[in-house]
Design brief:
Blueprint: E1 7-8, E2 11-12, H1 21-33, H2 36-48, H3 51-58, H4 68-85, H5 94-112, H6 120-140, H7 146-153, H8 157-166, E3 176-178, E4 185-186, H9 205-211, H10 216-227, H11 232-239, H12 243-259
Antiparallel strand pairs: 1-2, 3-4
Helix pairs in contact: 1-2, 3-4, 3-5, 4-5, 6-7, 6-8, 10-12, 11-12
Length: 261
């Protein structure tokens, strides 16, 4: 009987090998110093021994509606690029180096297959900017500025910003962005509600009465959030508590109001 057998691209994931760090170092030395068949054999072993890494990465994208087999194949391309470019002398774990490359390959695939079409010229500028960013980050051991990327490409800074914005993927308002051991904070919690600048909804007597049941801090939070249209981060800065606390107090206040409406 097979236990936990899942086949992706004809590969039985329950039987994928796992390499130790010492085994990987030996294989990398054989691949980088050997030639011919020995080099290819070492490379193949490194690929097969790290397929579980690809599986762990594609789980992050399992809600995009893409075929798992397609994502797995694209992830394998990123894995092979990481293997071919990995430098043992950097004293960095291979997984630390490979995961961003696998993720980058998958994101490029998703951008190219995005139903929202972006012109080829914009995509080319964006991809060049991303490549230069990675190159400068490796060279200077820090995240480069937009001005540095623009100077390297000899392209106006504004054009790079426009190109990078154009290839960004749409984000769900209900995508969690922070967890504080309790309720998650979603993207929608970070967005100002400019339509609630007035107090029209306070004209309802039931809501007025419900508001009177709240303490002063709860009233202040709801006032800043729904009357002035501020984000939870802005409210947190103004009253001197964490964003997670604002989120919890806001939800508690709204639930308390519902009981009295």
């Amino acid at each position: 009987m097979l236990i936990n057998k899942v086949e992706i691209c004809g590969v039985n994931t329950s039987k994928l090998p796992v390499l130790t760090n010492s085994e990987m170092k030996v294989l990398f030395r054989e691949m980088q110093s050997g030639d011919g068949e020995a080099k290819q054999t070492a490379r193949n072993k490194l690929v097969n021994g790290n397929l579980r890494l690809v599986l762990s990465v594609i789980q992050r994208f399992n809600n995009r509606g893409e075929y798992v087999d397609d994502l797995f194949q694209v992830g394998c391309i990123g894995l092979m690029k990481a293997i071919d470019n990995f430098d043992l002398g950097q004293n960095v774990k291979f997984s630390t180096y490979a995961v961003p490359m696998i993720i980058g390959e998958i994101r490029r695939y998703l951008r190219d297959n995005n139903p929202i079409r972006v012109s080829r010229s914009l995509r080319d500028i964006a991809y060049k900017a991303l490549q230069v960013r990675d190159s400068l980050a490796n060279k200077h051991a820090r995240e480069p500025t937009l001005n540095e990327i623009a100077q390297e490409l000899h392209i106006p800074r504004e054009e790079i910003v426009y190109a990078l914005d154009a290839i960004q993927e749409p984000v769900s308002l209900f995508e969690p962005i922070y967890h504080d051991g309790g309720d998650p904070i979603f993207v929608m919690d970070q967005i100002s509600d400019e339509k609630n600048q007035d107090a029209n909804w306070l004209e309802e007597i039931s809501i007025r009465e419900a508001l009177q049941k709240l303490n002063e801090r709860e009233k202040l939070i709801l006032s800043l959030r729904f009357f002035e249209g501020k984000t939870q981060m802005e409210v947190a800065d103004e009253i001197g508590i964490s964003q997670a606390q604002v989120s919890r107090l806001e939800k508690a206040a709204l639930n308390h109001m519902r009981k009295h409406m």
